[in-house]
Every structure is written in structure tokens, then in C-alpha cells.
């Protein structure tokens, strides 16, 4: 009887200690989400902004991926700028980077109306950001 009571007390103590762990992890993960500020010029919408760590320049560094969509009535190239407020770094890219070939003719780099494109911007930063600013405009 004493063994059963001790076992029950032990199981209750362990469950009380382990139960909050998943809840705490979820709370920390939610608190770690950065503030993302987006600014899109007329003719472009910012569809998605994600970030992740990836090996670049010999270390695991931050990469920000920005997906945009052309809402103009003509094919256009766009410029995307990303700023990290943690360290003041800014990076930019042109979307699309290269033109395409159609029926043997080289076309200039442009996103067709209603189509989407993306840019991946690396940063020399080994931490998750707390605040990111993303802007997109026709080039």
C-alpha cells in the first residue's frame, strides 16, 4: 500500500513538472516571432515574408525570403528591400533576377501581370530578428 501511494505521489509530481513544458515552449515560440513591417507601392503586393537560418559565408546566417505579386496590367521588374532593426543591416534584390527565353528570344527580366516572384536575401546575422521592415516597388 505504501509503495502504491509513493508511486502515485511520484507520478503526480512528475506530471506537474513536465506538463507546463510544452505550454512554455509554445509561449516562448510565440514571443519570439518578430514584428514584420511591410510597405508595398501601388502595383505590387507582398504575399509572404519568411526567415530561416542557413549556412552562408561559412556560418549559419539569417535568410529572409520575400514573395511578391505583380498587380499591374503590364510585365514589370520589382525591387525588394529588407531592413533588420536589430543591427541596422539592409539588403535588396531585383525580382526577377534574370530574364527568360521564349521561342528562342531572350526576354527582359519581368514578372507577368498576376504572377508572383520571390527573392532570398542573406544577412550576416546569427540570431533571429526582433523586427523586420520589407518594402517592394516597381523598378
Describe this structure in words.
This protein is of the alpha+beta class and 139 residues long. It folds into two domains: 1-32; 34-138, Sandwich (Immunoglobulin-like). Helix content is 21%, strand content 45%. It contains two helices and nine strands, in the order H-H-E-E-E-E-E-E-E-E-E. The chain has helices at 2-18, 20-31; strands at 35-40, 44-56, 59-70, 78-84, 90-95, 101-102, 105-106, 116-122, 131-138. The strands form three sheets. The protein has a four-stranded mixed β-sheet, with no helix packed on it. A three-stranded antiparallel β-sheet has the order 2-3-8, with no helix packed on it. Strand 2 and strand 3 (59-70) form a beta hairpin. The chain is elongated and about 85 Å long. The N and C termini lie far apart (79 Å). The relative contact order is 0.24. The model has no long low-confidence stretch (mean pLDDT 85).
Q: Mind sketching the topology for me?
A:
Elements: H1 2-18, H2 20-31, E1 35-40, E2 44-56, E3 59-70, E4 78-84, E5 90-95, E6 101-102, E7 105-106, E8 116-122, E9 131-138
Parallel strand pairs: 1-9
Antiparallel strand pairs: 2-3, 3-8, 4-5, 4-9, 6-7
Amino acid at each position: 500500500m505504501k509503495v502504491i501511494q509513493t508511486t502515485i505521489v511520484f507520478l503526480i509530481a512528475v506530471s506537474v513538472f513536465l506538463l507546463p513544458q510544452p505550454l512554455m515552449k509554445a509561449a516562448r515560440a510565440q514571443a519570439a516571432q518578430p514584428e514584420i513591417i511591410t510597405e508595398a507601392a501601388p502595383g505590387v503586393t507582398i504575399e509572404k515574408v519568411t526567415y530561416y537560418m542557413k549556412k552562408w559565408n561559412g556560418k549559419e546566417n539569417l535568410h529572409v525570403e520575400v514573395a511578391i505579386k505583380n498587380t499591374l496590367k503590364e510585365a514589370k521588374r520589382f525591387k525588394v528591400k529588407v531592413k533588420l532593426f536589430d543591427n541596422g543591416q539592409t539588403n535588396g534584390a531585383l525580382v526577377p533576377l534574370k530574364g527568360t527565353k521564349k521561342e528562342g528570344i531572350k526576354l527582359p527580366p519581368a514578372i507577368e501581370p498576376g504572377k508572383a516572384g520571390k527573392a532570398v536575401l542573406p544577412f550576416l546575422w546569427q540570431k533571429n530578428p526582433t523586427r523586420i521592415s520589407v518594402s517592394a516597388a516597381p523598378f
